[in-house]
């Protein structure tokens, strides 16, 4: 595969909920039964190491999934719990796993938005964020946590959320990338929780690293990770070009752009697509390429500057 080829999304992920699968030596995964247009077949939790292990992303508030995870590590000791970010399909089950194991929780910090909410924005109660989460240990970019036979490095990857971390295992060239990179689909970047400016910077950060096998929060593992990231960067730039192409025809609003750009989209994803367009527009307004009256918001109209 050359870097100029499109990397196809891979939607082949036969893993069944509740089953523990060793995907590589020292890495097991368990799928939660929470499928949706946003989560694909469900959230994937990872078990790192053997004997004394870490769990990455305990998943949503789901007793059956917690039981499946604890069953998978029966006879072992859970020494660490890591959380990539605070969406409700990733962090709420942390409390159950911590209570059962006593393991400390490592993450960037509590949930926060990528920018302050504008006065003109209505609060979206279905933003799907876990405001109750707080880690025992706050990790910053470059912090390293070592366990029994494994070593994870925190990689700041804001964009999907402001507090998103990936966890790299440099010696194995593995990276647990949460929802920042997914093999089955693009990630949702929805302001004010998410930021396209941050998201693109974080993709560049991953592309510059050595890890080439990615384990994602949803869907199958991603081989040739850096090439896949470069594909995502080109994909987002093409999306930006589509927005500018539509704006070249005159001032318009976000629903019109979504209809022009996302042909044949699942109707359940139309709102998310609108927020993704807004994330691009925020970036374009910040760069002085696109203009709007007032703050760049979901209900605004946009034109070339």
TrEMBL record:
- List all membrane-crossing ranges: none
Q: What is the lineage of its organism?
A: Bacteria, Pseudomonadati, Pseudomonadota, Alphaproteobacteria, Hyphomicrobiales
- Residue ranges under compositional bias (Basic and acidic residues)? 116-134
Q: Where is this region: Disordered?
A: 103-135
Q: Which SMART domains match?
A: Lactamase_B
- The Metallo-beta-lactamase domain is annotated at 42-218
Q: What is this protein's record name? A: MBL fold metallo-hydrolase
Please tell me the species this chain comes from: Bradyrhizobium diversitatis
What Gene3D superfamilies does UniProt report for this protein, alphabetically? Ribonuclease Z/Hydroxyacylglutathione hydrolase-like, Winged helix-like DNA-binding domain superfamily/Winged helix DNA-binding domain
Query: What PANTHER family does this protein map onto?
Result: ENDORIBONUCLEASE LACTB2
Pfam family membership, one = WHD_BLACT
């Amino acid at each position: 595969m050359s870097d100029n080829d499109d990397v196809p999304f891979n939607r082949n992920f036969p893993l069944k909920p509740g089953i523990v699968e060793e995907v590589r030596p020292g890495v097991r995964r368990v799928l939660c039964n929470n499928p949706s247009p946003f989560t694909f077949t469900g959230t994937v939790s990872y078990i790192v190491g053997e004997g004394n292990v870490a769990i990455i992303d305990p998943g949503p508030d789901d007793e059956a999934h917690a039981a499946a995870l604890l069953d998978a590590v029966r006879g072992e000791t859970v020494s660490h719990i890591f959380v990539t970010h605070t969406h409700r399909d990733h962090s709420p089950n942390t409390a159950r796993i911590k209570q059962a194991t006593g393991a400390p929780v490592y993450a960037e910090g509590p949930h926060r938005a990528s920018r302050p909410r504008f006065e003109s924005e209505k609060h979206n109660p279905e933003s799907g964020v876990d405001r109750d989460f707080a880690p025992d240990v706050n990790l910053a970019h470059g912090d390293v946590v070592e366990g029994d036979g494994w070593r994870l490095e925190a990689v700041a990857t804001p964009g999907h959320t402001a507090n998103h971390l990936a966890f790299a295992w440099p010696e194995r060239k593995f990276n647990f990338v949460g929802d920042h990179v997914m093999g089955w689909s693009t990630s949702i970047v929805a302001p004010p929780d998410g930021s396209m400016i941050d998201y693109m910077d974080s993709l560049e950060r991953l592309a510059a690293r050595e890890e080439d096998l990615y384990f994602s929060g949803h869907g199958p593992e991603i081989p040739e990770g850096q090439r896949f990231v470069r594909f995502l960067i080109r994909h987002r730039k093409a999306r930006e070009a589509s927005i500018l192409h539509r704006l070249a025809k005159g001032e318009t609003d976000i629903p019109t752009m979504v209809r022009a750009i996302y042909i044949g989209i699942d109707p359940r994803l139309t709102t998310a697509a609108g927020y993704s367009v807004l994330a691009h527009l925020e970036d374009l307004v910040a760069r002085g390429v696109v203009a709007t009256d007032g703050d760049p918001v979901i209900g605004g109209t946009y034109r070339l500057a």
